[in-house]
Task: structure prediction
Amino acid sequence: MENIILTGDRPTGRLHLGHLVGSLSQRVQLQNSGQFDQIFIEIADAQATTDNSGNIQKVKDNVIEVALDYLSCGIDPSKSTIFLQSEVPELSDLTFYYMNLVTLARLQRNPTVKQEITYRGFDNSIPVGFLTYPISQAADITAFNANIVPVGDDQLPMIEQTREIVRTFNRLYGETLVEPQAVLPQNVVCQRLPGTDGQAKMSKSIGNCIYLADSPEEVRKKVMSMYTDPNHLKVSDPGDTKDNPVFIYLSAFAKDEHFAEYFMNKETGKLEYKNLEELKAHYERGGLGDMKVKKFLNFVIEDTLAPIRARRHYYEQHIPEVYQILFDGSDKARKIAAETLQRVKRAIGLDYRNDIELINDQCIKYGSEPITYSSDSEKKIR
Ligand code: TRP
Result:
């Protein structure tokens, strides 16, 4: 079996550090590992319309933002196929058939969807398309025969739903679809980066994100005003590093090289802190001020973002090239999705053009002259 990855994002905003540690870095790493035969990255613009039907402009504008973010993080279009969901209409056809395999009660139990419904205040006015997006996500995954889906943990219910659809489909219609597996980021810290305000999650609506496209000045301002341990009032006070976003970010981004570079005392030739453990220990016992840690964090984030910014700058100067990448990717994706759709329709039994038995049965039933074929290649009727 081939190793095929599919993953994606809704284009509803620019991507931030949470996306970088939660998914983008892992994708780039998987892409460059050489272990995968094919990699598909979907910009899920159609899914984004399910809760933005009155604001399509927002979805449309963010397609390019997400594409720029992908490319600047190192997604390489010669290795990974980036495509637009709305450019692959076969996905909607697949969704339509999968809908019959899922109950309303099952959809309503999806914890991520439930949370989103509460969060968006849909209550009793849930758009049907929104409630069913996990089914369309199953179409996204199965259309490309993906066996691996790298995602954040909020997407696990979608992968579970996909697996159920695959099992039901294969049981009813014969072995047709590939059952995928979710792959979470290895580093536990990376599964969810808190907001700069200490809230559990970076979220554009709260305004607690550091964006990949932020300027050095914007990053510096955000880092320097980050929430830390509220009980760490004086430098001499002992501080908490566990629920402290500054330290959580450091565990996600800081490498020992950063310590070697930043904390080298040039006069003594000594390292003030060798690694994060030493820095944490000092903060915990007291005597280390937030300013000093934040300045270091800013250095680390800048080091992480500098190459990303440079690539972004190139692509910002070549916007038509970026759209071309999306269109080429979409053409390639569409071919594969069309093959899957044909296989699915054949498995279900809705494949009239190739179903000579059906036609001849009807001929016999009604007394028409049956049709004959001399070779397999002529089997297609039209
Ligand atoms: N639901 C995902 C998000 O919120 C986007 C997405 C659409 C996706 N189709 C997918 C993710 C298929 C993984 C696999 O960002």
In short: Residues 6-10, 42, 44, 47, 137, 140-141, 149, 151, 155 surround tryptophan (CB under 6 Å). The longest strand covers residues 4-9. The first helix runs from residue 17 to 33. The mean pLDDT is 94.
